[in-house]
Structure formats: structure tokens, C-alpha cells
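Let us work through a complete example step by step.
Step 1: write down the sequence.
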Amino acid sequence: MRRVSQLIIRCVADGSGASIRIVAAVVMLALGMAPSEHALATGPDPLSLEAKIPLGQVKGRIDHLAIDAARQRLYVAELGNDSVGVIDLKDSKTVRTITGLREPQGIGYVPSSDTLYVANARDGSVHLFHGAELSPVAQIALGEDADNIRVDDAAHRAFVGYGSGSLAVIDTASQTKIADIKLKGHPESFQLEQGGQRIFVNVPDAQQIAVVDRSANRQVATWSANGLRANYPLALDAPSGHVLVVFRHPAKVGAFSMNDGRLSNASPTCGDSDDVFVDTKRRRVYVSCGEGFIDVLEPRAEGYASVERIPTSAGARTGLFVPALDRFFLAVRATSTEPAAIWVYRPAP
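Step 2: predict the structure and record it as C-alpha cells.
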């Protein structure tokens, strides 16, 4: 019994998901219960914290991230600091801070023109920075509350959500806005269909998911949120044919059919979510939540089931999964004891 007690103490001190599963299995056996398959699974954590990269004197909220994979640069929208952090991932350090912005929210990198796009909430502008030196080259005025950015580099297009209900269409070759796609409310997360012309858009104020035809630049379908509210994160699970929409009220991941918008199932997840990503290599879903967790889910017959809930930090709700680097990056705001940082997670196996 003494050895069992010592094992439990060591596992609790370690704090990893695998150690917690060992403790759960031991406790269940002590109570005369058969431990679950999940409790017995003592392999590596699905996400292991590999590094913490300090952002410097960054205070307040941090929003979205973007990657320049060729240079291994990570760009961080430091909304509360009116700046963008530039991280060299090869050396795991912040190498530059772009200042003078106005509540940067969305951020996107266009490889073909080597240009960084930064969307600003306070004045509705998009600032463009070019090349290795990130020289300012242009500003595009949209109106108000410029937010998420998505890039279709092959088509030379960037899409920016803004205002009370619009997606701006930007020609990345001429660096000018060429169209507006009208919606029923402010767009939150949206994703471009790969190999198709659709854009799937969360419109929480209208309690809907909008489907846009980008060849026609107009909304062509509306999917009901089925009574769920505050749909902010959205990702595409193409292999399963699902649009994954994460709701805050209640905290659930809804799986909608890409074909007809039918809600297949809605599974519990962590609270105050703001980003969701699909790891197609491992058939996993990562949800980052301001509640202080990354929820790792896998598809099951009954829905997307949580297989690990990894503790992070309160308010750390934005991140970026980069398949090309096989890393998950989490933006963690400053606390009374730790500076703002990017936490780097390595998926396994």
C-alpha cells in the first residue's frame, strides 16, 4: 500500500495527462471498480508542452496567429498592446515587435507576395507589411471592427470579416478591395473550402452559419444553430464531411454535414472557446478555451468525444495548429507571475 501511495504522489506532482490517468486507474482499482479504457491508456499525452517563448512586455488580450512556414516565423496579434509580435521559431525567441497598430485581431500571411496582412478592430483598417524586413507597404480601409483573415493564395484572394455583416474580398496581387459579401451580422471565424468555392461563416448575432459562394460573392445558404448560441470557432473536418462549429452557450462542438448543413451531433467541450483545429494526420480536433484548457477530441459514432483536457492558463483561448511544422501554438496572456508567451505543444504519437 505504501508503494501505491508513493506512486500516486509522484504522478500528482508530475501533472501530465498520462500520470493523471494512472492515478485514476489506481483509485478505481482500490474502490473495486474496473478502470475505463481511457484511464488505462498511459501512452504519451496527445499534446506535450515543449517550450514557452516569451513575448516581452505584452499586456492584455492576445488574438489570432499566422505562420510564415518557409521562414519559420510566427506572427502574433497582440490586441491589448496595439502590436504584432514576430517570433523566430528556429531560435524560439521574439525577434521584433510591430507597433503603432489599432487593436490588431486577424492576421494572415500571403506567401506568393511575401506580405503580412493585419486587421485592426479599432479603425477597421488592414495594414500590409512586405518581405523579410516587414516594411509597411499599404493600408486598406474597410469601415469598422476588421477581424478574421483567410487567404486563398492560389486564387490571389484574401477575405476579411468586418463591420456589422461583411466579408471583404481583397485582390492580393493589386492589394485592393474588390468586393463585399453581405451577411446578417458580424462574421466571426470562417473557413474556405479546399477544392471548392464555398466559405463557411459563423454569424453568432444571427444564430446561424452562413454558406457563401466565393465565385459569386454572395451568401447562398443559411444553417440554423439549432438553439445553440455564441458560435465563434469553426473548422472543416473534410475527411468526415463535417463543418465543426464550437459554441460557448452551452459549450459544445457541433458537427454539421458539409452537404446539407444538418446537425449530426453536438458534444461537450471546454468553456470560452475561440479557436478549433483539425489534425487530419491523427484524426483529432483541438479546441483552445479561455477557461484554461485545450480540449483534445476524436470522432466517435456518437460524436466528437474528449480524450484529454490539457490544463493551460485562464484566458489562453487563441492558438494555431501548423501541420507543416506539426506543432500547436497557444497564445497565453500575461499574469501576475508569468509574462505573456507562446506555449509550443508537440502532438503525439
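Step 3: interpret the result. The chain has a mean pLDDT of 91.
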